[in-house]
Amino acid sequence: MTDRRSVLKGMACTAGVISVAGEAQLHPTVPWWKRATIYQIYPRSFQDSNGDGIGDLPGITSRLDYIKGLGIDAVWLSPHFASPNADNGYDISDYCAVMPEFGSMADFDTMLAGMKDRGIRLILDLVVNHSSDEHAWFTASRASRNNPYRDFYIWRDGKGDQPPNNYPSFFGGPAWTRDETTGQWYLHYFGRKQPDLNWENPAVRDAVYDVMRFWLEKGVAGFRMDVIPFVSKQPGLPDLSPEQLKNPEYVYASGPKMHEYMQEMRREVLAPYGAVAIGEAYGVTAEAAQRLTDSRRGELDMVLNFDVVRLDRDGWRKLPLSLPALKKVYARLNAEVGPFGWNSVFQENHDNPRAVSHFGDDDPLWWERSAKALAVLLLTQPGTPFIYQGEEIGMTNYPFREIGEFNDVEVHGQWKDDVETGKVPAATYLWDIAQTSRDNARTPMQWSSQSNAGFTRGKPWMPVNPNFTAINAATQTSKDSSVLGFYRRLIRWRSRQSDLAVSSYVDLLPDHPTLFLYRRGSVVVAINLSRQVQQVPLTGNPTIVLASDDDGATGQPGNLILSGWTAAVVSLS
Ligand code: ISL
Ligand code: CA
């Protein structure tokens, strides 16, 4: 008699496995992911190969030499799995199949082989806090209250015609939807098409581990884990207090069994495969992050912390950005990681606006300089740097003007909640969301000044940024002084600095409003985050190791002159 767990998890993945050549030997003391530069690809917007206006896996394969040429060690691929795309792939309907719009499993294997041929590791995006409501598990679960899959998800009776508690969804409305078939409500922290999986149920965890083994057997190097701290729910699911309702993510990410589940995942799957585990730490406190990444605890290897990218915003609202406040965040993250932990470093991704527009200066006269200055910040911080597609050429936010231009389910849910109810004037919402929207990072990659920026020969699923004729990879690839040229040089230089990822971090000018100056082991990093020429006070005589603009940095005894939006790494004698 096969026990229930083996029957239930059987629906996870039952594919064949392809053995692949072993990994190159790593430096015995430092794991590869501590020395790597990681590049995030959002496949829908990276490169279309068949003219349907949607990026796809063959498109990625056609750009592997570009990625290799950048000096990338690993790719984090946003979800490529089968999905109805209610949240552009973060709603998975089959964890062991490739989304048809992106191609076939053979296309995946070709892409993976192409990466391995170039010494590039592949990290997949594991979205297992929730699935799609079109996953076979949920179809079964919602069929009846006593279906074997019922407790794969979180069902509760409502309070009269109201949801079981006051949890809000991040995408507008309550985090509960009532299902007519059985009259119960199911939990979804995100969209109603993204029901939360019930990790209390060991059959769910076993099924997730089977999914992970399926892809690890194919030779992927590990996983970025989508909102993984959310998988442990608060016992009894009590209402949130008015204070908690302001940032529910801190309640959702502090369930009592999070560490237990991560340690089980490490034992069951990650350790046997030597797989890297990168946790998205939305709502995770510094203390919990330190425990999650403490190598002695056998949980995650690093977390993607949001304190930098969300410093100047409250939900969709844009707040003023203060450089001293930003410097305090970096200093705190570097202090709190502890001797056994590890940080990631990023300035943009598929959920955040473009760094040049967010932290830099996207004026046509300054975007190039500020993009290179920000590259120095990104690549000289402790930890593992993540570059998001297009960041390496200085792509900027899109000039959104009206709600119809947005694709993001989060934007439309917020519009419904806050504008259509009359709480917020449309102009106020549009002004802020144009600066903070995730869609800013989801417009097509700008490859060239040809039509649709060389992204597609069809109609792009998202509009191409009209500045693509000025900002694209083709015009930069042979220019050493371009953003792309500088990223290539900087990544190469960084890969040769054996201590940069791990050496000490000391902020030397914590209160300066526009200069960022910090010591990293044997070098000092100086960044001018303004248009004004600035004199940087130094103790000693600087020798310029590298500068974001060759004519932008001048060393003198006791100080360094930096032109507007210029950064330099110096050694002091
Ligand atoms: O602003 C957010 C929440 O209001 C986003 O940052 C995001 O929803 C949050 O960081 C979690 O992100 C991850 O999970 C989501 C998905 O939409 C995001 O793309 C993914 O990165 C649900 O899977
Ligand atoms: Ca396509």
Tag the structure with descriptive keywords.
17 helices; 573 residues; binds calcium ion; 5-stranded antiparallel beta sheet; alpha/beta; TIM Barrel; binds 6-O-alpha-D-glucopyranosyl-D-fructose; 8-stranded parallel beta sheet
Q: Per CATH, what is the topology of the largest domain?
A: TIM Barrel
- Hetero compounds: 6-O-alpha-D-glucopyranosyl-D-fructose, calcium ion
Main sheet summary: 8 strands, parallel
The poorly predicted ranges are: 14-27
Share of helical residues: 25-40%
Quick rundown:
The chain has 573 residues and is of the alpha/beta class. It has two domains: 21-129 and 202-491, Glycosidases (TIM Barrel), CATH 3.20.20.80; 503-572, Golgi alpha-mannosidase II (Immunoglobulin-like).
